[in-house]
Design goal:
Layout (H helix, E strand, L loop, with lengths): L4 E5 L20 E2 L2 E2 H11 L4 E6 L3 H10 L5 E6 L5 H12 L7 E5 L3 E3 L5 H8 L7 E7 L12 E3 L5 E3 L8 E9 L14 H10 L3 E5 L3 E3 L4 H12 L8
Parallel strand pairs: 1-4, 1-6, 4-5, 8-12
Antiparallel strand pairs: 2-3, 6-11, 7-13, 8-11, 9-10
Helix pairs in contact: 3-5
């Protein structure tokens, strides 16, 4: 499966990243020579994605200006949200408008930053996605190797790649990276308005239609200014390099 569309979730307030996000949406913060959003759009273009929907709410005018001036692939469609729709509601709106098309599409958090390992992560997600059997494939990263504070992890995986959530007193070996591939089928009877993607994930888990793929490269959790500073220091030191 090689999706030709994607959605970048860029509407949040980025409150933990303040004061850096007081005047800018979080995806427009810079890491290396480019914004977080440019890192993501370039990776999606390299994976063969032709159209990307980017939603906007906080400082939406700054995001609109930036995207209007951006050149090159992929085509970007701005989805303005006067009221926040949360992750699931934003994707449902993009599907209802026809901006997202195809049997599957990528969904990437606007602050996601990763370095590919031996296999490009987006292509690996596409190979694992089987429309007849799968609603979501989440890109996961080993909790102990994550850069940044990620708590007790998010998920367990069985030998077939099926996902189970962490229990209340458990430490999970994998954390969600903010990168996934999804089927329109999963949103067919989703509620209107604002709702979290977790609602659809839980249903897919119950139906064994949610899979996880362990990332074989590096991933940075970018939640606070300190997280961003650590990633920037690694870039300058040549630890991870700047990839396109």
């Amino acid at each position: 499966m090689k999706p030709h569309c994607a959605m970048v979730l860029a509407a949040g307030y980025g409150t933990r990243m303040r004061p850096l996000t007081e005047e800018l949406p979080k995806p427009l913060l810079r890491l290396g020579e480019r914004t977080l959003l440019d890192h993501t759009l370039d990776r999606l273009a390299a994976a063969g994605v032709e159209r990307v929907v980017v939603n906007a709410h906080w400082r939406a005018e700054r995001l609109a200006e930036y995207l209007a001036a951006r050149q090159g692939k992929p085509e970007v469609v701005l989805q303005h949200e006067p009221e926040l729709l949360d992750t699931g509601g934003a994707v449902r709106k993009a599907l209802a408008s026809g901006a997202l098309r195809g049997e599957a599409f990528y969904i990437v958090n606007g602050d996601a930053f990763w370095l590919d390992g031996p296999k490009p992560a987006l292509s690996a997600l596409g190979r694992m996605f089987v429309p007849e059997q799968t609603d979501f494939v989440l890109l996961l990263h080993p909790t102990v190797h994550a850069r940044g504070e990620v708590g007790l992890g998010d998920f367990f995986l069985d030998p077939l790649g099926c996902v189970r959530r962490r229990g209340e007193r458990e430490i999970a070996p994998y954390v969600f990276t903010g990168v996934q591939i999804a089927s329109p089928r999963a949103f067919a009877d989703a509620p209107e308005g604002a709702f979290s993607m977790n609602l659809l994930w839980d249903r897919a888990i119950a139906e064994q239609r949610l899979r996880g793929l362990v990332h074989d490269g590096l991933w940075f959790h970018l939640s606070t200014p300190q997280d961003l500073a650590v990633a920037e220091a690694c870039l300058r030191a040549g630890v991870i390099g700047e990839s396109r």
